[in-house]
Amino acid sequence: MKAGKIIITILWLNLFCYINLFAQQVGVNSIDATFQEMDINKDGFLTLDEMKAYQEKRFNELDKNKNGFIEAEELKNNKTQMLEKFDKNKDGRISREEAFEQLNKDINKMDTNKDGKVSKQEFEEYWPLTINF
Ligand SMILES: [Ca+2]
Ligand SMILES: [Ca+2]
Ligand SMILES: [Ca+2]
After folding, report:
1. How many Å lie between the centroid of ligand 2 and the Cα of residue 75?
2. Which residue of 26, 29, 39, 100 has the fewest C-beta atoms within 10 A of its own C-beta?
3. What is the CATH topology of the domain spanning 3-129?
């Protein structure tokens, strides 16, 4: 096997580990199931409102002590990645504002054809990097 091929294989493996971590965190097994759950009006696209509603739901689930923040101990195995990504003011917890700010950024990145909504294909391509509370 050529070096390039090995590197690509390793990258893919990493990607799948990453997907797995998020799937474990949100308690779902597939990208498809998550997309279906997020797509409230079932038109095959995700809008900011739909994604916000989903994030809000996940946020409430994760915020076990209901103090309006997600703390490290409320996150499971991928807490360092989640915290690093979301915790902008570095106080060791994720606020709703921080979560929403990140969601906004993620949607802009996901929406590669810039039509203001996220298609299934765009979602799948971006999934490994996505918020997915
Ligand atoms: Ca929709
Ligand atoms: Ca909390
Ligand atoms: Ca914070």
Report:
1. 10
2. 29
3. Recoverin; domain 1 (1.10.238)
